[in-house]
Structure formats: structure tokens, C-alpha cells
Specification:
mainly beta, four-stranded antiparallel sheet, 4 helices, 20 strands
Length: 386
């Protein structure tokens, strides 16, 4: 539903406002389980009985006759506006989405004596919420020159509300999904601090508490999100020569998450090319996290979850409309020539590794392990219309 508020008689529409619209949307959807997820089925096997071998059946899937679709509901609230003779437009949206009866592969007890180790059950509840916004402006527009600018951004948070009484999901040694926390969060024994007790300028772990110089948590603790919570982009375009030449550019930012610097963790845990190990001028933080992963009994990787915020020059482009004589020579009605360069480099980052988008592993547990930054590439394209 939407309501054009600016068209109401009671609304005091100023002269610089063209339109103001309020909108809302609500929807529900489902995710069906696999076609055989609820079905019990068997396979033949040779059994050894009192009278010798005999043919029999064993479970390959215990099934779940009460299995039902995963259900999601989403609510959106937004406001759109256009201003200054439609040269400026804005969109702002808040959304919240809840998924219930999530399909989770539950581990079965070995004492069941089946050949199946898991089965799908409706156990989980997850909530996602955030904001999306866009501002678009036609700053200058003349016959021979134009300049437009667009800003877009979004935020995203999520929480695992319930696992239906089941234990926490351990995805890996450093990633878990726990009730009350985000999905696929980073978890490990946490480096809480350090103190150079002997004054030698080096941070060292000792088994003796009186000498020990690093402070850590007793158990694994939550460190942060593994996926970006904030994403913003700025896009601009300049039109020249009456629109026959257009220059474009885009910068984007991602942040609010932690990147697992697995390459540095490997160096510091088991090799000898780690700055925190061999460089006496390295920061106390680098020395402390090296001691934690190399010598502390927990061998915790908690010091290698780094802030992944970055600003990247994502793309530069050029679009040219060739002279009509060129187009006619190609027997075409119209034509454009496009040049683009993408992934042109990091302008700023908090991450100490090669690149905050250099992932050696992907999926729900991205980590930077002996990987390259996204490649810079160039494209040339000719579009013809007939």
C-alpha cells in the first residue's frame, strides 16, 4: 500500500517539493523441504543372524513425517520523495524479516542404530532487519554539460532467536551460530589485553600467572559478524558534448564486520615469517596475538579477526556515441562504444592483510588465506542497433 501524502489538502506542500509518498508492504513465503526429506526409506543389507547370513533392510533416512515448510514474513516501511523539479529524489526503507520453522539438519544419537546420522527438523527462528536508502541528484543539466550523483546504502543485522532447544551449531573451530547472536559469528578465546611486566619491550606468554604478559578469556567468546553489516556506494556521471560522451565512476564501502586473516595466522602459529614473532619493533598487539596462537594452551585464533572496513574505487567508465557517418557505414541505426575498468584499488581500509576481499575460502565462512585481491580488469564493448 502507498499514500501520496503531498496530494492531500491538509498537507502543507512547499514549492520545492514535487511529491512525498509513504508506503508499506507485507509478505509471506515458504521454503519447501527436499522432496525426500520427510520420507523414511531403506536399503538392502546382508545381516548375520543365529542361522547365518540373511537379507534385510536398514534405514538410510529416518525421515520426519511432521516436517513442514520453512516460513518467512517480511514487513517494509518506506518514504519516497522528489524535490526541486524532480532533480532530487530520495528513497528510505526499513525492513524486518522473520523466518520460523527453519529447516535444520539435526544430528541423531548413534544409539538409534540407524544408518542415518542426521534428519531435517523445523527448529530455528531467525530475524533480519535493516535500512536501505538512496539519494539521486541531477546537479547540473545544460545542453552541453550534465552532472548527476547518486548515493545508496544499506545496513543489515540478524539474530538467531531460537534453535528449538538444540545445542549451538558449530560450523568450524572459529565460527558458530548461537541463540541471541548473529548467524555464522566469529567465536574464539579472546585476547583481552597485555602487560609488559618485565619491561623488556616484548610481550610473552608464561605458564606462571605472575610472569604471564597476555590476558585472555576463559572460554570462546563472540567477536563479531563475519559478513558486512554496512554497504554504501557513490556513483557519479558527467555528460559532455551534448550527451555524446559520458564519464562514470563508482566508489563503494563495506564495513561493520571482521575478516579472518588466516594467512597471517598460519605464519604466526607455525612458521617463522611472522612480524609479531621476529620483529622486536612490531606492535604489542601483534606480539600478543602471536603468543596466543603459538604458545597459549588454547592456540586461539581470536587475535586474527580484523576489522574488514574498506573503501574501494570500484569502477571507471566511458561511453561514446560515435558520429552518424560511422554508424551508417556499419549499416546500423545507432551505436555506442563503452570502455570500463573495474576493481581499481583500495582507497582506505582497516585491514592489515592483502585485501579485505581476498578470500581463500568462500561461503558463510570467508577467510583470507593465501589469496589474491580481486583482479583489475578492463572491458571494451560495441553495441549496435538495427
Amino acid at each position: 500500500a502507498s499514500w501520496v501524502l503531498s496530494e492531500e489538502d491538509f498537507f502543507p506542500t512547499p514549492g520545492w517539493m514535487n511529491q512525498l509518498r509513504l508506503r508499506t508492504a507485507y509478505g509471506a513465503s515458504g521454503v519447501q523441504p527436499g522432496t525426500t526429506a520427510a520420507v523414511e526409506y531403506y536399503t538392502t543389507a546382508q545381516m548375520l543372524g543365529e542361522s547365518g547370513e540373511a537379507s534385510g533392510l536398514i534405514y538410510t533416512s529416518v525421515g520426519n513425517r511432521e516436517l513442514k515448510p520453512e516460513r518467512s514474513t517480511e514487513l517494509e516501511l518506506g518514504v519516497d520523495g522528489t524535490f526541486f523539479d524532480s532533480r532530487l529524489s530520495t528513497e528510505v526503507t526499513y525492513f524486518t524479516k522473520t523466518s520460523k520453522d527453519q529447516l535444520i539438519s539435526r544430528i541423531l544419537a548413534p544409539s538409534l542404530g540407524t544408518g542415518s546420522t542426521t534428519r531435517f527438523e523445523n527448529l530455528g527462528e531467525v530475524r533480519n532487519w535493516g535500512w536501505e536508502a538512496m539519494i539521486s541528484a541531477q546537479i547540473i543539466q545544460t545542453d552541453n554539460f550534465g552532472w548527476d550523483l547518486q548515493f545508496s546504502g544499506s545496513t543489515l543485522s540478524n539474530e538467531l532467536i531460537s534453535l528449538g532447544g538444540e545445542p549451538n551449531i558449530i560450523h568450524s573451530s572459529s565460527q558458530q551460530s548461537r541463540e541471541g547472536y548473529p548467524l555464522y559469528g566469529w567465536w574464539a578465546v579472546k585476547l583481552l589485553g597485555w602487560e609488559d611486566k618485565n619491561g623488556d619491550g616484548l610481550i610473552t606468554w608464561f605458564a606462571d600467572p605472575a610472569q604471564n604478559e597476555i590476558i585472555v578469556s576463559d572460554t570462546a567468546e563472540y567477536h563479531g559478524y563475519s559478513m558486512p553489516r554496512r554497504e554504501f556506494a557513490v556513483t557519479t556521471g558527467i555528460d559532455l558534448l551534448g550527451g555524446k560522451l559520458r564519464l562514470t565512476g563508482m566508489m563503494d564501502y563495506k564495513g561493520g564486520h571482521l575478516v579472518y586473516n588466516n594467512s597471517e595466522r598460519i605464519r604466526c602459529a607455525s612458521r617463522n615469517n611472522c612480524a609479531g614473532l621476529i620483529d622486536p619493533n612490531s606492535s604489542h598487539y601483534d606480539q600478543a596475538r602471536t603468543q596466543l596462537v603459538r604458545l597459549h594452551p588454547s592456540r586461539s585464533v581470536g587475535g586474527f579477526f580484523e576489522e574488514g572496513d574498506f573503501l574501494r574505487l570500484r569502477e571507471l567508465g566511458l561511453v561514446v556515441i560515435p558520429p552518424s557517418s560511422w554508424v551508417s557505414a556499419l549499416r546500423a541505426r545507432n551505436a555506442t562504444i563503452s570502455f570500463a575498468a573495474r576493481n581499481l584499488g583500495i582507497l582506505w581500509t582497516k585491514y592489515s592483510g592483502v585485501d579485505p576481499e581476498a578470500f581463500g575460502t568462500t561461503g558463510n565462512a570467508p577467510s583470507s588465506f593465501q589469496a589474491f585481491a580481486p583482479p583489475t580488469y578492463f572491458t571494451v564493448r560495441l553495441n549496435l542497433g538495427f
